[in-house]
Amino acid sequence: MPDRESHKEPSQPKEPARSRDTSRESDAERRRRRAQFLRELTEARELRDRVQPRRAKTARLRHAMRMRTFRW
At residue 3, does pLDDT exceed 70? Predict the structure, then answer.
C-alpha cells in the first residue's frame, strides 16, 4: 500500500572471517554445549519417567508399536 512505509530489516554486520584455530575452538565449544544439553535432556526424561510412570509406560508401548509397524 502506498501509505505504508517500507519496513526493511536493518542489515546485520557480518562476522569477520575466523582463523582455523578459532573455528576449532568454537566447534569444540559447540560439541561441549551439545553434550551438556543432551545430558540434561536425558536427565529430564528420566525424572519425568519416575514422576509419571503411567505416561512413561504408554509412551514406551506407543514407541514399540511404531517400531513394529515401521517398514524399511
Answer: no
